[in-house]
Amino acid sequence: MTKKTGCIFDFDDTLVETTIYYDLAKEKFADKMFRLGFPVEELLEILNQFDISNVLKCGGFHKECFPKALVQTYEYYCQRYDITVCEATRKWMEDLGWWVFEQPTQIIEGATEVLRQLSTEMILFLATKGDSEIQTKRLKESRLDRFFHEIYIVSDKTHKEYTHIARKNGLDPAESWVIGNSMKGDINPGLRSGFNCIHVYHPNTWDFEEEEAIGEHFSVKSIREVPEIILSYGRKRLAASE
Ligand SMILES: [Mg+2]
To answer: Final residue of a domain: which of 102, 137, 166?
Structure first.
């Protein structure tokens, strides 16, 4: 059986805006803490540590992690500066975390056109981490779900998940692509599984998703540049085989 050519897309900060809402919430949080009289120098770093530790503890990006991290950081500061926790403020912090998930799903400019174009050439897949309920809702809202042959909402994105998708769908990784904004979750595991990879730069990528690239890959500033790379690669391969 001939193996197929396909693309596996990341979702958050590749096709839809995600981190901008977390960053806005963090700004509001820092402002509130400043007005409560707490020093803000290390504040966001401590919040980040609680957030990452929650994600690692619950084995994935569950929606509770961020609201909980905001509350934990507030409580940590109260304890450190010997201040009684105010229930109303605690509730405000938690609600600020939930606010992130209530924001409308904003498609990154050009993403719909790119998926529409590529879906006429090859099969497309989506592989995303995140809370299943939230991601399903955002996929439906964005209407991007219609372009994908299969959608995988997974607790982690390592070479195992990419290899599984390739095997299950008869994809040839050497002729297929992984596209995303994260070195850690998209590019490096994609390279480890033998895919061609395109890193799409996003200024708001969470530092949890950063690491050094382990191999050669394409880098672009906009998702709009993706189809030309993939299609010209296909044309070159075809010309070489003729
Ligand atoms: Mg991403």
So the answer is: 102
How many whole angstroms separate alpha carbon 53 and alpha carbon 14? 24
Residue 234 and residue 130 share a domain:
yes
Instruction: Report CA-CA distances (Å) from 175 to 6, 170, 178, 193, 238.
Output: 8, 11, 11, 12, 11
Compute the distance from residue 11 Cα to the ligand 1 centre, in Å: 6
Residue 58 included in any domain: yes
Say whether both 123 and 213 belong to one domain. yes
Judge if 143 and 231 occupy the same domain. yes
Whether 119 and 84 map to the same domain: the answer is no
DSSP 100-122: GGGSPP-BPTTHHHHHHHHHTTS
- Domain residues for the domain of 215 are 6-16+106-241
Q: How far is the CA of 84 from the centre of ligand 1 (A)?
A: 38
Specify the number of domains making up the chain: 2
Ligand 1 center from residue 181 Cα (angstroms): 5
pLDDT tens for residues 169-220?
999 999 999 999 999 999 999 999 999 999 999 987 776 667 899 999 999 9
Instruction: Tell me the CA–centroid distance for residue 79 and ligand 1, in Å.
Output: 35
Please give the distance, rounded to the nearest whole angstrom, from the Cα atom of residue 80 to the centre of ligand 1.
Answer: 34
Distance from the alpha carbon of residue 3 to the mean position of ligand 1, in angstroms:
27
In tens, the pLDDT along 138-154 reads 999 999 999 999 999 99
